[in-house]
Design a protein that fits this description.
single chain, 230 residues, alpha+beta, 6 helices, binds ligand 0O2
Amino acid sequence: MAITVSAAELRELRDEFERFLMEYRFGMQEVETKLGILRDEFQLVHDYNPIEHVTSRVKSPDSLVEKVQRKGVEPDFSSIREAITDIAGVRVTCSFVADAYRLFDLLTAQDDITVLAVKDYIAHPKQNGYKSLHAIVEVPVFLSSGRVDVPVEVQFRTIAMDFWASLEHKIYYKYDTKVPAELLDSLKDAAETAAELDDRMERLHSEIRGGSHVRPPQLRPVAPRPAIQA
Ligand code: 0O2
């Protein structure tokens, strides 16, 4: 059945879609600012930078539509807002596992941040070897029309985890999701090697910092994580 839409209706839909995505962009920027403040303050106070780099993105319209279809979400803005919580995403790459948890603690302890969900794929790696700490946080954004609370997915990981994930992502797309079994085994092996490297580097770092330097707070044991919701 053909649906006829006027040019004015199409324009209205486009504007609504732009406004919808804009809120997510602002939410993402709020989280980026918070992380930037934590990084700069850490550098100044502890002479140590726990963040290697931060990247962020708002899901592309194509990828959003694909996820809406895959998850069987009603194609209206309010259902999408409710069901898809990774439209805005921020990825924090740290040198060490302890820094990833420390950053998570510092960000989620802020009183304008609400934690909606946590998936700890560092403590509980995915079957394929994927590791990362995911948090869906809600951050307030103040528009001319008032306050909106925007969900943002924040992923915390180490450089080694990030290296592994970007290679796995490329392989997954190269093989159009049908990755040969032996390549999957090699990837899993590589994830274990990456985890070993993380351990060794963290121990070395702790030995160096533990000497003449004041031990930075991110190397103290971190609080237990909220329960995994996979
Ligand atoms: P992109 O390019 O980051 O936007 P979903 O898997 O999305 O249907 P859910 O519950 O939202 O369901 O997923 P989850 O477990 O929270 O993970 C979502 C994001 O984590 C993914 O986003 C990836 O960024 C990353 N991720 C999760 N699992 C893997 C994995 O096995 N390999 C790699 N390389 N990344 C992973 P998107 O939307 O898939 O992609």
